[in-house]
Design a protein that fits this description.
The complex is a heterodimer. Chain A is α+β, with helices and mostly antiparallel strands. Helix content of chain A is about 60%, strand content about 10%. Chain B has a four-stranded mixed beta sheet with strand order 2-1-3-4, covered by helices on one side. In chain B, about 40% of the residues are buried. Classes of the chains: A alpha+beta, B alpha+beta.
Amino acid sequence: MADEIMLLDWWSSMFGMRVRIALVEKGLKYESREEDLNNKSPLLLEMNPVHRKIPVLIHNGKPICESPIIVEYIDEVWKDKSPLLSTDPYQRAQARFWADYIDNKIFQLGGKIWTSKGEDQEAAKKELMECLKILEGELGEKPFFGGENFGFVDVSLVTFSCWFYTYESFGNFSIEAECPKLIAWTKRCLQKSSVSSSLPDSLKIHDFVLQLRKKFGIE
Amino acid sequence: MAEEVKLFGKWASPFCCRIEVALKLKGVEYEYIEEDMLNKSPALLNYNPVHKKIPVLVHNGKPIAESLVIMEYIDETWKHNPILPIDPFEKAMARFWAKFIDDKFWALWPGVKKAITSSGEKEREEGIEEAQLHLNALETQLKEKKFFGGEKLGFVEISASLLIWIVVFQEVMGVEILTQEKFPALHKLTQKFVDDDVFKQCVPPWEPLVAYFKAQWGTLAASK
């Protein structure tokens, strides 16, 4: 029986992008449904009643929520192709640790940069750069966080790269200036079709945020 | 080669308690090292340079940090008495609920803090109400779920053991937040932990725990 896979998504969500990448890495066919986050569908509310958020993966009618959990699920079910996590428990623990670190830091700090100004914005910029430097240190000389191969941490972080231009533009700073190896890594990742096909254009995101800022009166 | 397992922890921490439960369920021998969080050891700073927090598990010299990550590592390394389900979907559900419990625990903390540090009755009550909002979310979701029905303790239940600390907070504050009438499912769960043989060995002794938080919060209230 063919697998039925549906992804409830939103085009600019870094979290949704992670799932897209994982599905393409595994060569899976799926139906993608774009949610209107201001008017959430009955299906979304039914499949994710707890958080009412995207992404939600629906596999043969069963929903899985929270992007790191979804990506691990995909990796476990379709384990024969393009593994994203090592089989070694220690490597897996390190990958989960860094994915957790990314989730606790990057989204909030990046969001603060484009929604605030003055001292708040400066503080967020400083902290974001510290986090990115730590991540760059973890990458080291490896081509990917996963080592020779693109892996779980790469999936978790690369989806923020299309938001970097937005952060830099509204925060008036350059990520590449302080983290050149990290930017080189994003370019390396973008050479993979799973990544380039899953990430929207940086300018499109910037324009979207410009509209959001106007809507919320952030200037 | 003999296994060397060390756990850097703090006796009063619910996150360390989880790890001790997991290790004991697996019958893993370990050395426990108590950390003074006001004077962190060079070893801790070396093993967890990113967060500088406990718990940290060190297995044959290799460190793992973050309690849920550590629990999964323990389950994958010592495969008998599995904590997580084998089925990928059930596993995903277990991970989801464990994270939900963690998120709610952190979310209710500002309300608790408000209640402790407020001088006014009204503010204190507001703090309690805010905390109860998050407990409500937990209660609603958990009472429909099956994973507390079984005899065995699994990933979600071990994660949920930090709810006992809410009962500790109540005693420290002299206020009931997790009442049996408002939160029957949560209340039943905390009782289950208190009665369980493995948990009993890992949950710190009651009175010292209450005294510890009373002292901590005395500082909090005073610093306001």
